[in-house]
Design a protein that fits this description.
heterotrimer, A mainly alpha (158), B mainly alpha (94), C mainly alpha (112), B: 94 residues, C: 112 residues, mainly alpha, 4 helices, membrane (chain C), transmembrane (chain C), transport (chain C)
């Protein structure tokens, strides 16, 4: 990935030399043109084209924002309900992610999911212990973690 | 109109500050107090932002960053102290 | 034009203040530290983000300069708030704070 970015900067500098104009806007135009050239030749790189990864990061950020709003609505419902009738509890969740930063991002996302909060990560980084506001929502929470978050994070890291 | 709304907003933030203060004083356990303290730090940021709109100056916006960093570090230090009994440990492999 | 921006920014600020009030109410009302943490760490984060977005809009249109310090602050709070919530929760669990009586499940206890 770093090699591709370096190549892109190099193409932009070559564009600056060709135009004989050394300012910021020429650099940006050259960068975009270089991106186009690299997009055409993307099958010749050994790694994945790095714009895909940028796209995945943007998707992850959007998921973050959506979950934050949804979780606020659910907390609002619980807090403003006249009777406190939820049943909190801690459940274990086994994750398939292995790298440290992936688990960090996953636990941040879980903390922002409706009604769940990470309490502890086990020693071998495989099991997350999650405190749920209402244990009845457990299936739903596990489902959304597995299908949405882990997939989005793996899209970034693969 | 806008000024009135801003005053209402400041009043609301102060009210929620009183709520957190109640939990800070009463809170049966120490983690309760840390939760309240963390939320109060975030409340302070809101008050600085609103005050800078009321006074119509952007000079105070640096304080937002400082308060954010300080409240986060304070929370982390408190949590660590509660868990291990010391903040900076020399034995890193535990 | 300036009126529309003022209404928008006031709307953002009032939503933020409402979220703050809800989170304070939740911190007073909910029964134990874990559930209180739900209210404090989620609602406060979104509330401060709304208030800062309102501030950003106001300064952008009133003084027509885009203040990147506020963007930085939004980003920073967005990153750190879940971490702080998790750390408090973990330290509460390890220092032996009891869960609420009506809690039904504790998988962490079994595995220790």
């Amino acid at each position: 990935m770093s090699f591709q970015i370096l190549l892109n900067v190099f193409l932009a500098v070559i564009w600056m030399f060709l135009k004989n104009e050394f300012n910021g806007s020429t650099f940006i135009i050259g960068y975009v043109l270089g991106l186009g050239i690299m997009f055409v030749f993307r099958h010749f790189f050994t790694e994945r084209f790095y714009l895909n990864r940028v796209k995945a990061v943007i998707q992850l950020t959007l998921i973050f924002a959506r979950e934050l709003i949804l979780s606020n609505v659910s907390v609002l419902k619980v807090v403003l309900k006249p009777k406190l009738d939820m049943r909190p509890g801690i459940f274990a969740f086994e994750t398939v992610l292995t790298k440290d930063w992936e688990i960090t991002i996953l636990s941040n996302l879980i903390t922002l999911t409706p009604g769940t909060l990470v309490v502890e990560v086990s020693e071998d980084n495989r099991i997350l212990y999650i405190h749920a506001m209402d244990i009845a929502d457990k299936e739903e929470a596990v489902d959304s973690i597995k299908n949405t978050f882990e997939k989005a994070i793996m899209e970034v890291s693969k | 109109m806008f000024d009135l709304l801003l005053k209402i907003a400041l009043l609301g933030v102060s009210l929620s500050m009183i709520g957190f203060l109640y939990r800070l004083i009463k809170g049966p356990s120490v983690p309760d107090r840390v939760v309240a303290l963390d939320a109060m730090g975030i409340n302070l940021i809101a008050i600085v932002a609103l005050a800078s709109i009321v006074m119509d100056t952007s000079a105070y916006l640096e304080a937002i960053l400082l308060l954010g960093i300080l409240s986060f570090i304070g929370t982390v230090a408190f949590a660590k102290f509660l868990e291990k009994g010391e903040i900076i440990e020399n034995d890193r492999n535990r | 034009m300036i009126e529309i921006v003022e209404i928008l920014s006031a709307g953002f600020i009032l939503i933020g203040v409402f979220l703050f009030l809800v989170s304070a109410f939740g911190v007073i009302r909910l029964p134990d530290v874990y559930t209180r943490n739900h209210a404090a760490s989620k609602s406060s984060t979104l509330g401060i983000m709304f208030i800062l977005i309102g501030t950003l809009l106001y300064f952008y249109y009133k003084h027509s300069h885009f203040d990147f310090r506020v963007v930085l602050a939004i980003f920073f709070i967005f990153m750190t708030s879940p971490v702080a919530g998790h750390l408090i929760n973990r330290s509460a669990y390890h220092s032996g704070v009891k869960m609420w009586d009506k809690s039904v499940q504790d998988d962490l206890k079994k595995n220790r």
